[in-house]
Amino acid sequence: MKSGNWITAAVAAIAAILPGCDNLVLQDIKPGVTSAAEVRARMGNPGFEFRNDDGSVTWEFTRQPSGVHCYMITFGPDQIVRTVDQVLNEANYARVQPGMDRDRIRRLLGQPARVETFANLREEVWEWRIEGIPHNEETYFNVFFDTGSGLVTKAGKRVAMKA
Fold first, then answer.
1. Do the beta carbons of residue 111 and residue 129 sit within 8 Å?
2. How confident is the model at residue 161 (pLDDT cuts 50, 70, 90)?
3. How big, in percent rounded to 5, are the helix, strand and coil portions of the chain?
4. How many angstroms separate the CA atoms of 46 and 36, rounded?
5. Domain 3-86: assigned CATH number
6. Does CATH place domain 90-161 in 3.30.1450.10?
7. Res 3 pLDDT > 60
């Protein structure tokens, strides 16, 4: 096997295993019990940390671009887990509204899998791979920003045939 092929195969195998690992790890993370140190030991370093107005901190653990989940784990000032949420869900897609800024969208949905700018349309599109039809199609959630104002203009799902 050529070196590039085994690397691709290894990455695909790891991506396939991660959701199962997440389920095992997440069932051990208990609100009101598990500490930030325990979460870090089990899940690694977060991709991003959000400081909340009430003194709590939310850690982002995205599984993009290959996965379809993004976990937000919030800790109180005591460094104990308050909540564990998988934020790529219908309720959060419905919260995306025209006029929201990039920071609010990042806080709501986590880091996108892909960002693409269309200068001629004055548009920046953030895309997340999400759960959808499991067979020959992949589903994505897209948020469109006006590049001038940086605010959401629209959002919606896109379905694509798997290659």
1. no
2. confident
3. 30, 35, 35
4. 11
5. 3.30.1450
6. yes
7. no
Residue 20 has pLDDT above 70, yes or no: no
Do the domains at 3-86 and 90-161 have one common CATH topology?
A: yes
Q: What is the pLDDT of residue 29?
A: 95
Tell the residue number behind the tokens 């025209």, with chain if given.
98
Instruction: Give the span between the Cα atoms of 127 and 131, in whole angstroms.
Output: 13
Cα Dmax for the chain: 54
- Which residue, among 127, 38, 118, has the nearest Cα to 84 in the 3D structure? 38
The full set of domain ranges for the chain reads: 3-86, 90-161
* 145 burial level (CB within 10 Å; 0-12, 13-18, 19+): buried
DSSP helix/strand/coil, 47: coil
